[in-house]
Amino acid sequence: MKGRIDVLEELFRTRPLAASATMIWGETILHLCVKHNQLDALKFLLDNMDDPQFLNAEDDYGMTITQLAVAEVNAFNANGFMALDTLAQSKRDKKDWEIGELL
Fold it and tell me: Which Pfam families does UniProt cross-reference here (predicted)?
């Protein structure tokens, strides 16, 4: 996920329903934006999507984008994991380690 807003705009213009698709483990494009620190892409999608339920969608682990963004550090998902537990399972780059240190 590179945060290419120009590509995202074109995809959204030509295939708007593609933004509502879910990926493996029930993740939405919003989950991916949060996981990969793509704030500009997230803002674009939130500004252009008109589906409040999509904003609060849970992945297969019960995680919403709010939980992924660590709005509540001690919030539990449907599997009893907190944000730090989830982060420990998916560390990918230096930013993930920095988030873990902050938690």
Answer: Ank_2
**Displacement of CA 70 from its chain's centroid (Å):** 11
Residue 28's closest CA among 69, 70, 56?
56
Domain CATH number, residue 13: 1.25.40.20
Checking if the pLDDT of 72 tops 70, the result is no
Boundaries of domain holding 46 = 5-102
Best CA proximity match to 69, nearest among 47, 91, 92, 39: 39
Instruction: Tell which wins on pLDDT, 2 or 102.
Output: 2
- Whether residue 92 has pLDDT greater than 90: no
Asked if residue 96 has pLDDT above 80, the reply is: no
- Number of independent structural domains in the chain: 1
